[in-house]
Structure formats: structure tokens, C-alpha cells
Amino acid sequence: MTKHRILVLGGTTEAKALAGRLAGRADFDITLSLAGRTLDPRPQPVQTRIGGFGGADGLARYLKDEKIDLLIDATHPFAAQISRNAAEAAGKTGTPIFALRRPAWQRQDGDHWTSVTSMEEAVNALPIEKSTVFLAIGRQEAGAFSARPEHAYLVRSVDPVEPPLAVPEARYLLACGPFALEDELHLLQSEKIGLIVAKNSGGSATYSKLEAARKLGIPVIMIERQAPPGIAEAGSVEAALPLIDHLLSPARKRGE
Ligand code: NAP
């Protein structure tokens, strides 16, 4: 049987879950690609390759060399560069592509969100008066808050923030979701958090901090996503499965 070769660009819970669902298909040959940012990546259900491709051209070369039949961009909604590269490489090589992307969180009654479009805007949106700020934005861009040393910070990330923030008051919490609402309520109260900075990542694993903020009346600076490249999207693993079969169907390949 000729197998369909599928490359899943990962680094998310959804990518792993999708790979797990596809792993049992005898007609699929799945490779999951990881950037290599996480120091101790979780075991994955399919073969993995780790590290960048060398831009859109490098990815296009990989798609050709490896005879990839379908590219699935299941990267994090804030991993904008690899998503742009994926769309460009798929376009150049004529490889079918879609994105598995969780829908963004929507503001609810009782939320006190200030929406911004970049980390720089988030830094500028901090209040003048001193606050204890909970940074729930991952480690890669936390350093931007060194520009506001008048605040105290609690920084939560999967891997250590290196170098640490150049501010007098910062504490670091290494933790990996999912996070329970009770635990988030306890954390925000015990740490006397006055403000949260978050990325609008979507999904359920890290939503509880926003529910906790709503209950406690804590304001949130919400960094919204950049517009994604204009390719087909599935919002969940369930929605992705029929799309995969459709994109690989012989009728579609014949252009019917
Ligand atoms: P990014 O800025 O969009 O990508 C930067 C470069 O990293 C890309 O140009 C590519 O290098 C390489 N890369 C990214 N994802 C890759 C993948 N899945 N496989 C191979 N190479 C990849 O990405 P990022 O924001 O640094 O995110 C890196 C990884 O962490 C992604 O896998 C993403 O899903 C995951 N992640 C990101 C966030 C976030 O908030 N940004 C949160 C959770 C998880 P080349 O140009 O050399 O190909």
C-alpha cells in the first residue's frame, strides 16, 4: 500500500493529539516536527524531527525531498513565523496544507481585558502605579518587561527564563498546564496578583487563569493574535480528521 506522507508542524497539545489519532492509520506515514525549544519535550506518539528547516525555502526543500503529500500547521497561534513559512512553502511546492488552530478566547461578562497586539504594547499598557504582575506569556518574550522595573513580577513558564528579567523584584514559577481553576484562584490570591499579562492562545489547558481573574476582578492585558496566513483551518482535532481525508482524496488530487 502506498502511504500518504504527512508532516505535522507541532509544539502544541493539539499537534500531539492529532498525531496520536493518525498514528493508527495504516495508510499514513506521519512525521511530527518540533522546533526544539522545550528542554525536555514530552514523548510523542509518532516519529519526530527536531529543529528549524531554514526558512520557507528550507521547508519547501524538505517537502519536496521527503515527498510530503500533506502539510498540517499545528503550531501555536503565536508562532507566526513558522506559520507564514508553512503557507509559503506549501504554495511554492503545491503541497496541500491546512492549519489546526484553536479558536481565540472571547471576552466574557465580568472580564476586565485590555487588548493589545504586541508584547511591546503590553509593556506600555502596564499602569504607572506599582503592581504585582503575573506574566503568563511563556519564557521567550518575558525579557521585554525589564523595561518596566518599577513593577514586581511572577513569571510562569515551562522552562527557565534565561536571562532573568533585569528588575529588582521577579520570581519564577516552572509549571506546565493544564491548570485547575482552584489552583489558579489560590495562586492569584496568595501572590497578591494585581494584573495578568496573557496571550490569547485559546484552548482549555490555560484558560482557568482567566476564569480566576474574572472571579477576583483582576485586570488582564490580553495580547491578541496576528492575522494568520489565509489557508484552510480546523479548530479542533475532530474537525481536522475529515479535512485530512478530503485533502488526500484521489478525486481532489484529480481536481474534481
Ligand atoms: P516562530 O517564531 O513562529 O518560529 C521561529 C522559527 O523556529 C521558524 O522560522 C522555524 O525555523 C522554527 N520552528 C518553529 N516551529 C517549528 C516546528 N514546529 N518545527 C520546526 N521548526 C520550527 O515560533 P516560536 O513562537 O518560537 O515557537 C516555537 C515552537 O514552540 C513552535 O513549535 C510552537 O508551536 C511552540 N510554542 C510556541 C508558543 C508561543 O507562544 N510562541 C507557545 C507554545 C508553544 P526555520 O525558519 O529555520 O525553519
CATH domain class of the largest domain: Alpha Beta
Question: Helices and strands: which structural class?
Answer: alpha/beta
CATH superfamily of the largest domain: NAD(P)-binding Rossmann-like Domain
Count of all domains: 2
Task: Predict the CATH topology of the largest domain.
Answer: Rossmann fold
Any guess at the CATH architecture of the largest domain? 3-Layer(aba) Sandwich
Read across the widest sheet, the strand sequence of neighbours is 3-2-1-4-5-12
Task: Give average pLDDT, whole number.
Answer: 95
Instruction: Write the H/E string, N to C.
Output: EHEEHEHEEHEEEHEHEEHH
User: What composes the largest sheet?
Assistant: 6 strands, parallel
Strand fraction: 15-25%
The shape, in one word, is elongated
Ranges with pLDDT <50 over ≥5 residues? none
DSSP strand count: 12
Number of separate helices: 8
Q: List all distinct small molecules, including ions and cofactors, that are bound in this structure.
A: NADP nicotinamide-adenine-dinucleotide phosphate
User: What fraction, in percent, of the residue positions are helical?
Assistant: 25-40%
Distance between the termini: 23 Å
